[in-house]
Inverse folding.
């Protein structure tokens, strides 16, 4: 009887451990489960530099001459909450084409249909919710066209 009880407790403990193993989104091969300091170190190794004029204790802003975006790393207690890419373009067609390419890529990669919150020519927003987290792809084709991609470890409120 004791052996059966021990076996049952072991199975319950093992299943509880497996359930707590959460999978996280990845940003270009870097898991959002990393500590923020490790993530920042990895970015620096990839050629990014910290923009100290825009960074705060809870937000680290990175730039790279090789990339066409600014990257913001939101963190709290060395845990990543969000990673935000922000692209700027000189004309609307380039951001619209990039938005469509990324939209198609996320659909294929995540195997999730996005919730299209906005879908007009000047403002498109696709939200991809997965058990790993949420990606929000936003296009604003206004005076200064911008495209942002937000990788979040949580589910975004609607």
């Amino acid at each position: 009887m004791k052996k059966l009880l021990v076996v049952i407790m072991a199975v319950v403990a093992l299943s509880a451990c497996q359930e707590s193993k959460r999978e996280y989104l990845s940003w270009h091969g870097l898991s959002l489960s990393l500590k923020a300091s490790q993530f920042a170190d990895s970015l620096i190794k990839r050629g990014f530099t910290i923009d100290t004029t825009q960074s705060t204790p809870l937000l680290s802003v990175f730039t790279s001459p090789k990339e066409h975006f600014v990257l913001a790393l939101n963190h709290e207690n060395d845990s990543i909450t969000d990673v935000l890419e922000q692209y700027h373009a000189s004309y609307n067609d380039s951001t619209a084409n990039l938005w469509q390419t990324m939209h198609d890529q996320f659909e294929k990669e995540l195997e999730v249909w996005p919730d299209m919150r906005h879908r007009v020519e000047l403002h498109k927003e696709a939200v991809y919710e997965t058990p790993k987290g949420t990606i929000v792809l936003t296009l604003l084709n206004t005076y200064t066209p911008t495209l942002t991609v937000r990788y979040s470890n949580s589910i975004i409120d609607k």
